[in-house]
Amino acid sequence: MRNENSILEVENLTKKFGGLVAIDNLSFSVQRGEILGIIGPNGAGKTTLINVISGLYFPTTGRILFEGKDITNLKSHQRCRLGISRTFQLVRPIKEFTILENVMVSAIFGKNLKLTKAEERAIEICEFVGLKRLKIPIDSATVLELKKMEMARALASDPKIVFLDEIMAGLSVDETNEMIDVVLKMNEHGKTIVVVEHVMSVIRRLTHRVIVLDRGKMIAEGSYEDVSHQPAVISAYLGEEE
Amino acid sequence: MKGRKWIYILIALMAGFLLPFYVGPYPLGIMTNVFTYMALGLSWDMMLRAGQLSFGTSGFFGLGGYTALLTTLYLGLDPLLSIFVGGIFSALVAFVLGYIILRLRGIYFAITTLALAGVFTVIARNLHDFTGGPEGKILPTTIFDGNPTYIYWLTFSIALGTILVSELFQRTKIRFAITAMRNDEITAQSSGIDIFKYLLFVFVITSAIQGIVGGAYAQQYGFVSPESTFSSNFLLLPIAMCLTGGIYSTLGPIIGSIILGILSEYLKLRFPYGHLLIYGIIIVVIVLLMPRGILGFLKSFRYRFSKGGETG
Ligand SMILES: Nc1ncnc2c1ncn2[C@@H]1O[C@H](COP(=O)(O)OP(=O)(O)O)[C@@H](O)[C@H]1O
Ligand SMILES: [Mg+2]
Q: What residue spans define the domains of chain B?
C-alpha cells in the first residue's frame, strides 16, 4: 500500500453529515509532483474532501497520511504549517485587509515569517500569480483578482501540496487561460497540485491523472482520456444535466 | 507628518505627567477616574478586536481588587506590589477559565463571561471570614497615604502601559492574527493561525490589565465590597466609552474615556438630580448618530473633504 512517491494518502475516508454520506469510504493517494484532477457532478463531495483534508472537518472514519505521517487528528493551522494549503471555492478574503495583507497573513503564520519578510514574500507571490494592484481594498477587487488572491494566499505558506477548489468558475476564457498558465507554473516550481474542477477542458489541459467522484465514491481513475470515455463517468455527468 | 505625530504624542505625555503641578485635587481626581476607565475600555476593545465580546470586565477588575487588598491585609504585601499580584491572579483565573470558555463564540461567550463575573461576586459575598462578606474589607491606610498626585501618576502609568500594549496589538503580527480571526475564522485557521492560542493570549492579557486596574482602584480607596468592587459600572462605562470614541483602535477608547469621563463630572455638578439620565441619553444619541464612534466619524469626515468634489 505505502508508496514511497506518494505525498498524501487517504485511507477509507468517510464523512457523514447526519444521515448524508458526503464521502463514502474513499481511498486514494496523491503522487509527489503531479497535478491530480478531481471531477464529479455537483454535490459529489469534492469540496467536502478538501475540507476534511485541510482540517476544517474531521472525518467520521478513516485516516489521512501526509508524507507518511498520520495527520487525521491535526488542526487546520497545523496542517497548513506542515505544507497543506487550499483555496476556497467561494472566495474568503479578510475584508478589512488589502490584497497584499491577505496574502501576508499566510506568509506570517503559515511560514512563520516576520512582518517585513512576510511582506517581501507576499509581494513576490502576488507577482508570481499575476496580481498587480496589491494595496487595493477587497471590495474594489475583481473576481479574477480575488481568485488570484486565493491562490497567492495558498502559496504564501510555502506548501508542498495545494488544493485548488474550482478556481476557474466564473472566469472568462482569457482569464481561464491565464489561470491555467499560473497553475502549470506552480507545478513547474515543484508544487504538488490537486485541482477540483467542473470544466472538463480545463481538466484535460492541466492534469496528469484524474479521479472521478460521484456521491462520495470514486467511480473512475486514470488519465483524462481513459476516464472521460467510461460509461459510469458519462452517465454521472449526463445524469446531472437532466 | 510622521514627525508631527510624535510631537503631539510627546506633548500629550508631558501634559499628562505635569498635570498635578497645574490643577487641584478635584480635577486630578477626575483624571484619575478617566485613566481608570481608559485602561478598562482599551482592554475590553482588545478582546473585541480578536472577535469576542466580553462582559467579564468588571469580574476581572473585582478579582484584581480583592486580591490586591486582601494580600496587603493578610500578608502585609506592599500596596504597589499587591496591584501587580492582583493582575497576575486575574490572568491566572482567565487562563484556566479561558481554556474552557474560549471554545464558545459570540453571544454564548458574552453571556458566559457575564455569568462568571456574577459568580465571582457571589463568592466574594459568601466567603465571610476571608473577604468580609457583604460588608467587604477595609485597610487601615490607603496607597501613598491618599496623596492624590501619586495616585494620579499611578493610574496615568497604568493607562500608559495599557496604551502601549494596545499599540503592540496594532503594530505587530498580533494585528494580522486577530483581525483575520475576527473577520473569518475559517480563512484564519487555513492560513496557519492558531485561533485558540491567540484568543487565550488576548483573554489573559486583557484580564491581567483589568486585574491591575482593579487592584489600583481597591488600594486607592483602601476598601473592597461585592457591590462596589464588582460594580457593573466597570463593565458598562468602558463599553460606552469605546462605542463613543470608536472601537477597534487605541485612539477611540482614549477619546471616549476622556470625553465621557469629563462630561459625567460636569453633568454631576450641573444637574445633581438626573445627571445619570442625561448622561445616558447623550451616550445613546452619540452612538446612534455616529455608529463608528467619534473617531470613525472624524475619519469619514476628513475622507470626504480630502476627496473634494469627487463625492460632493
Ligand atoms: N457543512 C455541511 N453540512 C451538511 N451537509 C453538507 C455540508 N457540506 C457539504 N454538505 C453536503 O455534502 C454533499 C457534498 O457537497 P460538496 O462537497 O460541497 O460537493 P461538491 O463540492 O462536489 O459540489 C452535498 O450533498 C452537500 O449538501
Ligand atoms: Mg464544491
A: 22-231
Q: Select the more confidently predicted residue: A217 or B3.
A: A217
d(C-alpha A74, C-alpha A76), whole Å? 7
Domain of A144, in residue numbers: 93-158
Cell of B169: 496589538
Cα gap B65→B40, rounded to integer Å: 13
Q: How far apart are CA B9 and CA B248, in angstroms?
A: 20
Q: Are B59 and B207 in contact (CB under 8 A)?
A: no
pLDDT of residue B310: 42
At residue A3, the pLDDT reads 63
Is A215 inside a domain boundary? Answer: no
A161 close to A191: Cβ distance less than 8 angstroms? yes
With the CA atoms of B79, B85, B91 and B92 taken in that order, what torsion angle do they form, in degrees rounded to the nearest 10?
Answer: -150
Judge: B190–A80 Cβ closer than 8 Å, yes or no.
yes
Q: How many other C-beta atoms lie within 10 A of the C-beta of residue A140?
A: 10
Nearest-Cα distance to chain A for B188, in Å, is 8
User: Pocket of ligand 1, candidates A15, A20, A166: which has the most ligand atoms within 8 Å of its Cβ, to mutate?
Assistant: A20
Given a cut of 80, is residue B307 above it in pLDDT? no
Burial class (CB in 10 A: 0-12, 13-18, 19+), B30: middle
ipTM beyond cut 0.85: yes
* pTM for the full predicted model: 0.94
β-bridge partners, A162: A85, A193
DSSP secondary structure, B103-124, as one string: T--HHHHHHHHHHHHHHHHHHH
pLDDT at A56: 97
Give the relative orientation of helices A99-110 and A143-156 as an angle to the nearest 10 degrees: 20
Q: Which residues contact B9 (CB under 8 A, 6 or more apart)?
A: none
| Residue A162 Cα, gap to closest chain B Cα (Å) | 12
